[in-house]
Amino acid sequence: MAYLHAVREFAASLLARVPTVCGLCQDTACGGKLCPYCYRAVMHSMTSGAPRCAVCRLELDPYGGCADCLQRTPAFDRVIAAFDYAAPGDLLIHRLKMQLQFTSAGMLAGLLADALRSSQPVVPEQMVLVPVPASRAALRRRGFNPAAEVAYRLARQLKRPCRPGLVLRTREGVKQAQLGRSARMHSVRSLYACPERLDGVHIAVVDDVLTTGSTLHGMAQACKAAGAATVWGLVLARTPYPVGGPEALRAAGQRGQLHSL
Ligand SMILES: [Zn+2]
Ligand SMILES: [Zn+2]
């Protein structure tokens, strides 16, 4: 067993050195990852030390607390996000979801794994990964569930189980990107359910983008109702405030307008 593990580690270290093309600038990179320049550019805002909400990772405005968590106490415990849903990282999400580049899911899972390793507080070691289930319409449109593709690869990298069947959609619901904040909250009520008890289990819900947090809130409500000990959100990208801060957010009326994927 130890021999097999050593062989796998050696093979992984060799693959990490194989020359590949950067998924963002198409320049030379290694092992399917971003080149060092693009890596820094994508991860910079999340690692710059700017004040963020301790729960949902929204970058805080100069005027006060987190607009999202103040309006609603989240059912989830914490969010870990790899980068902000802003240039240039938003292009990676766009390519994954709109250009159907699900082969980039491994590289994106790697960015999230890096964010997890450097996160404080530390995510429970015994967590079980659960992707946000896609609607039937989204599955028909894309042919795959981006959240699940990232979750499978992240689970492999973290050596944790991935159990997509732990949380199911109870109905089709409405496309979230078309809804405002309160409408999103209403639409996810009872949208998810757990077919089995999760007593004492630490759940990590995996999704591509977190905008208002309403999807994660709905998933966490279902998991906690089934007995989950904690529910973490592991997301590739966190949608920041629009330019102009919370005033612009209030004027816009709908945070859903920001994320149209
Ligand atoms: Zn690059
Ligand atoms: Zn918050």
Description:
This protein has 261 residues and is α/β, with parallel strands linked by helices. It has one domain: Rossmann fold. Helices cover 39% and strands 15% of the residues. The protein is built from 10 helices and 8 strands. A 4-stranded parallel β-sheet has the order 3-8-7-4. A two-stranded antiparallel ribbon has the order 1-2. The protein has a two-stranded antiparallel sheet with strand order 5-6. α9 (214-225) links the parallel β7 and β8. The longest helix is centred in the N-terminal third of the chain and has 14 residues, at 2-15. It is globular and about 45 Å long. The termini are far apart. The structure holds zinc ion (ZN) (2 copies).
